[in-house]
Amino acid sequence: MDGTMNEEMLHEAAGEAFWCMDRIELSPGRIEVSGWAIPPPAGHAGAGFAFNGRDFEEVAWPTPRPDIDAIFNYLPGMRQGFGFVCRSRFPERTCPPDGFIRISYTNLKTSRPFRDDHDYYFPTREEFPLPPPGNRKRVHGSDFEISFRLEGYSSFVKLGQAVQDAFQAGLGDFRRILDWGCGCGRVTRYFSRTRGPAITGVDIDAESIRWCRSHLRFGEFDAIPLHPPTRLGAGSFDLIAGISIFTHLKEREQFEWLAELARIAAPGAAVLVSINGPFAACRTPVADALRLLDDSGGFLDLGSDNALDGVIGESGYYRSTFHGTDYVRKRWSAYFDILRIIPGYIGNNQDLVVMRKR
Q: Do the strands 112-113 and 100-107 form a parallel or antiparallel pair, or are they unpaired?
């Protein structure tokens, strides 16, 4: 595609400015974070980075990020690079031991994040051991411990915010919560901090389910088949969350699982699932992914994802798929009321589809 057209489609899908945080390091009295960020129209001078509402004291940006530069090679500033490294003194009193660190990409003119819903959250304590490296890699794409915690806790916090906004209820106000496709508990582990609901996690990765049963004793965990139905009872859950599951299903299996989620959801239940939408298409190294998604009619299958090779029995089951928002609103409304689709919400990459069982 023409570079100008690509840039226009990118900003239409992603907004004024967007970013991704890769790493956080804490040492006594110090904090360091790194990642990449696309500058706003005003340029690098108009943006900054903050933690818990405090500006970082040292910011190196832009720095070379060949992996990111290759994807966004049509954007202004590409030759300078999109990477950043931020460092600062870290007063311990600014973050209680049982709290979290909030990292923001900020508009220096307003001293506010460009998007509140693109902040990251890092927990300052862990109640449970981390899963083995192989399990982490299958669910997370890498075995890096820090990013596993960062993405898991950020998704947990953002799910709670989305539920509050759409249903005027906190996570603790629900009776039974299902983490559909929980893997080795990247998000599920933090539901232990939600007092009240009964927590269930299910996944097609039986090995990860066994790990969760042994180490996340606050919940119930069960392995499920590649194709529904499951053993879960009809109308069992009043909140269902599924992070990065529809991103790996063929179109036919997508509809099978939508029907199953509708079966196990209680009337009025909140159902929140993520998709690779136009925002994620902006970040894929596949050339012209946005155009391909549009040309496909709203469902794009880019082929097999080998993350679960040797773990599940059906070759080619696990895919890399993208959804258009119009497609989701039209086709998924046969199963749920579509309340909202939040672009780039999960991991500052995947859209979150917020739905309600009729």
A: antiparallel
Q: Name 258's Cβ contacts closer than 8 Å, sequence gap at least 6.
A: 332, 334, 335, 336
**Cα-to-chain-centroid distance, residue 2:** 30
pLDDT of residue 84: 97
- Considering only the top CATH level, what class is 133-356? alpha beta
**pLDDT, tens digit, 9 for 90 and up, residues 10-28:** 777 777 778 999 999 998 8
d(CA 325, CA 291): 14
User: Per this entry, what is the length of the chain?
Assistant: 358
Torsion sign over Cα 81, 83, 85, 86 = positive
Chain position carrying tokens 């090995």: 207
Model pTM?
Answer: 0.95
- Domain 3-123 indexed as CATH 2.40.10: no
CA angle (153, 321, 356) in 5-degree steps: 60
Distance CA 355, CA 81 (A): 38
Contact 162, 174 (CB under 8 A): no
- pLDDT tens, 183-236? 999 999 999 999 899 999 999 999 999 999 999 999 999 999 999 999 999 999
Positions of CATH 2.60.40 in the chain? 3-123
Please list, in sequence order, all residues whose beta carbon lies within 8 angstroms of the beta carbon of residue 335, skipping any fewer than 6 positions away. 258, 259, 261, 262, 355
Residue with tokens 């980075």: 49
Listed in order, the ranges of the chain carrying CATH 3.40.50.150 are 133-356
For 178, the token pair is 């299902």
